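thread from #wetlab-drylab

HS: before we spend reagent money on co-crystallization trials with flavin-adenine dinucleotide, can we at least see a predicted complex? here's what I'd submit
DV: go for it
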Amino acid sequence: MASMQTKIKIAIIGSGPAGIAAAAALLKKNPGLKSDIIIIEKEHHPRHKLCGGGLTPWADEILDQLDLQVDVPSCPLENIEFFLHDKPISFGSQQLMRTIRRDEFDAALVKKIRDRGIEVREGVKVTDISTEADYVTLATTAGEVRAEIVIAADGAKSFVRRKVLRDDISRISRLLEVLIPINENELTPEFTDKKAVLDFRAIRAGLQGYIWDFPSYIGGRPFLNVGIFDSRVNKGTRADLPALLSAHLQRRGFYGNYQLQGWPERWYHPAQQISGPRVILTGDAAGLEPWLGEGISTALSYGPIVADAVIDAIETDDYSFSNYRRRMKKSQLGWYLNRKRNVAQLIYRPGFSKFLPAFGRILSWYMDLRKW
Ligand SMILES: Cc1cc2nc3c(=O)[nH]c(=O)nc-3n(C[C@H](O)[C@H](O)[C@H](O)COP(=O)(O)OP(=O)(O)OC[C@H]3O[C@@H](n4cnc5c(N)ncnc54)[C@H](O)[C@@H]3O)c2cc1C
């Protein structure tokens, strides 16, 4: 294929929730930008994304705001169970959260943004980025793209982040996940009681996180989505994640040879630059919170903040994005991510396990406050 060059005002790298939300928020603020935006995605949708697929009401709120609600199968949950001790703490609410499958969800978001007139190039990987005074050049597997602004929504392993940021003080969390097929006639309590389980007991074994059990349906068939999250927000212990996950599965009576998959999450730090000249990071590439690691709502919430920064840049002809870090820090999202980081640093600190009962009481209070 002959190499071609595209010139565009705004190139978004990545079509996960962060990339789509950035495009939707830009269109909402300025519909005239429709033909000035392209999204470049290395995979073809529906593509696999390792994820528990847990969507909170917060995510739904932002989907509503950005007019991005999509009709995909979802499994509504009405209960959540926290294990800090052997006796769980339970919370119930009509619309607690729901689980979706990311391949279906993300593909539907992409369709929605395409229907709104945005070009999404699938199967095109960005392989290099270089910034000049007046534009950014992206080398891709399908020719060169020259953009005035690049929005990097390329996920937790963001290659743009590595290329553009000089120092990186934030770190990454580690996650492992398995999918367990469940017999329709022997549905587990997660399905019959419509509940999600978050088990923090492995904190005592050095885990800086929790193990989750989420019910989900793949092609209409029940699968338990079980995973382990290690925030690594504090320096020190490195828990043995496969061993802890396997102990959890065996305690539950799952002895199969399940395929273990891993993927990281990067967490947000308010002191960290998350932009460079003409390049702005969003979603997992910029960072999420390391307490529960809920990243879909976060990725969506970055959208309007990124859109404001981009529109300001165009209006003022200042493409430095030098105030994006402060803009994020001062935003409600930045405040929330930072507060959650503080909570994570406290709870996942060595020696905190003896305070788990007191934490249980705080958690009850928090859950009431948050009205899940
Ligand atoms: C095991 C696990 C379980 C999780 N469970 C939950 C959960 O239950 N609930 C929740 O809210 N969050 C969960 N998360 C977090 C959530 O998955 C992420 O926060 C979310 O996907 C972030 O969205 P994003 O758009 O920033 O990145 P992504 O969804 O990762 O999208 C990035 C996109 O960029 C594309 N891309 C990357 N590099 C390039 C390139 N060079 N060129 C072109 N395209 C590129 C990728 O193909 C991808 O489509 C979980 C994460 C993990 C790892």
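DV: The chain has a mean pLDDT of 94.
HS: ok that's useful, forwarding to the group
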